[in-house]
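Why do we care about 3D structure at all? Because function follows from shape, and shape follows, mostly, from sequence. That is the central idea of this module. The next example makes it concrete: a single protein chain, its amino acid sequence, and then its structure expressed as tokens.
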Amino acid sequence: MTRCWKGIALGTLMAFAVGSGVSAAAPEDAQAAQAQAQGTATAETADAPMGLSARLAAKRSAADAKAAKKAARLLDRANLKASDWLTSNTISENEVVAVWRDAYRRFKTKKGARCSVENLLKRVLKDNPVGHINPSVDLSNAISLKYALPIGAENIDALEGTFRLAVTEGGDEYLPIGEDESDPTLPGELAYIDDAGALCRCWNWRDGQRTEVTDQTPHCVFIMENLQPERAGDLRAAIDELAQQLEELLGATVQNKGIVTRDNPEFVLEA
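And the structure:
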């Protein structure tokens, strides 16, 4: 379950089996696995034709490569589209950034913390397009750039208790992605937390290791955020497009979508 803080519009959608290597087994996969368990003929030899397992692996590899190329193309187009949001060469003077700068001044933050979409747009402004990482990350970045909305993702299976956006009392356990030392929340900081600690520091600035999403994460929730009421349509469009691409490009199953607001402050996550 996720909650809203002071009327911030949060778009949420749940996606299952995102990325390579986590799709549901086809009947052929199940038969091959059973045959291997029984010691029957699924193993290949140097002289034998390609076995079922190898054919399935080759087919999956080709599909993954196709998805990676399509996600990369979407990101390349989004890098170009993002310039439409940048009417000033000073990043903080662009409206889609300025609203977040103002919001960040209203709570305690770490020095230099910025909204995640600002970091993406800054690269575009400096003619340093957001690069390719993997299909799921490229897709998320593409939607974020296209609509100038921050997007985050969390591993549902790693959540403990209630998942919520809240002003913290400080001291919430948090290990940043790529770091070895804990970096707990500050008193008065706005962060995504659950009953075990913080998931993302300073609103949507930096994710933690515990709920990190990879291409092998089977159950995840994507979170988008919008501060401008007049852009409610953009939020809905971004949710719908991300859901469509997750299903078509990555073979995910999107279980449900929803928008959390002050008047509708809860959204149930059921992995």
